[in-house]
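Sequence only, no structure available. Ideas?
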Amino acid sequence: MTAYIALLRAVNVGGTGKLPMTELAAMCEAAGFDKVKTYIASGNVVFTSSKSEAAVKAALEQAMQAYAGKPVGVMVRTAAEMAAVRDANPFADAPGNRVVATFLDEAPPKDAIAQASNINGEEMALGKREIYIRYTDHGMADSKLKIPAARTGTARNMNTVAKLAEMASNL
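Reply:
I predicted one. Tokens follow.
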């Protein structure tokens, strides 16, 4: 059994994509996942499964489509991958709530940072299947930063990444 973390895109953010975490847990259990635990109300769930990452992603996307009536992006990482994202944080000296990892399905294009616009003090770095962003003291909410390569991804701050890595390692 592999410990996985699934990150849903645009769930319970800004009043869109309402999904009670009890519903998300029930969907995961119905998909055959074990030891299901959610974390905060923004579409984070850890669980174990004998299925492949692709099969886990497909099962969750299908369940979310049925629930929401529209596609919902799902990013999946193993416990080891989430720990690696936490450990590879290039902005580890910054507060965890000022640095996010934007999770992608594939490696970001090498020119992802060059394609970014509306940069106002933010710093960026490429990861394996992530783009790290360090926000200024004004935070993410006031940022106008646009990263075209991150359009279909979903971001989590490093505090959340660390907590999810810990939860998954304990399954």
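The helical segments are 21-30, 53-68, 79-87, 158-169.
Hope that gets you unstuck.
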